[in-house]
Amino acid sequence: MATLATQLFSRLDSNTKDEEQLLKLFWNRAELKKELATLRNDIYQLTDQLEEEQALKLRVQKRYELLETMLSNPETAATAQTYYQLRDIWNRNFERLACVSDDLSREHRDKEYRLHVAGFRRKLYDSLTEIQGELSEVNQSGDSLRSQIHALREKRAHYQGFWNFFRRRRLTAEINKLRSDCRAVTMRLGELTEDLQSRSSVTPPEFAGLDVKAKREINLTIIAYAQELYLHFSDREIAAKSLEASIRQLCDIRYGDRRDCRSMSSYIEERIALLEADGSIHDRVECRVQYLKSLVNYRRETDTVPSAEVLDRIAMLRDSKPRGEVGVNILADEYWDVFAVLLT
To answer: Does 171 share its domain with 143?
Structure first.
């Protein structure tokens, strides 16, 4: 009988071990499937990335070959030179707007941060002054209580003999009451001192960043600057041609014959030089900002970019008053990639 039981339990143990091994194999197989699926996804992504890079390399190679072909021909070389001059205008103006955005953001951020810290320190000073005032009052109250206790003790000392028992007991009760009040005052002094120390070590809270008003002022200055840049390059449609060059390929554009291209190139160089030497553009921009403030509106209170509909024309200002206008919408046409530098 014992032998039979031993054989039976041995078989049960063997079956249990076999089941555990099967489960381990199943789990390992499932993990291998997951790893295989992950590797396949990685392969697909790397293949797509490689194809994209190869396609980009092919496009760049074609552009290089096209440019080489155009530069080898005097007629088309003039077109290529003008094309890249126009693209350079676009890039220069974008960089100007980006610098304006960065400088104004830094100035406003520094100003608002100083106000933020000053406000925090002012509130902290008021809070500490209030605590110190209460601390002084509590100290005075403690001194008064200790003086009363001392006076009652001296008074009690004068009442000797058993016939003054009730007087001494009444004075003792008053002294105990004052001692209790004195202990409460001492605890309050400790709380106020701890509160004063903890508040004195508090640092200003994290600065939340520019508010909507500051962002609107910065964006309005950027828009005004972009309009001034358009007006500077508006003659001979340089600004419009620069926009075209920023979105179209060289092979799709013509600017006339060699003489026309050279004339335009010379004019572009002249306008760029005049812009670099223009010392009054910032005054004109500020004047335009004041004009735009009375013109623009915002759809929501949280919007930082004005509605484009009201900016469908550029006023030509003289003495802070409009003396004509140009039918161009800087925002709608996204001149100089203005949306890339506007704050949202």
So the answer is: yes
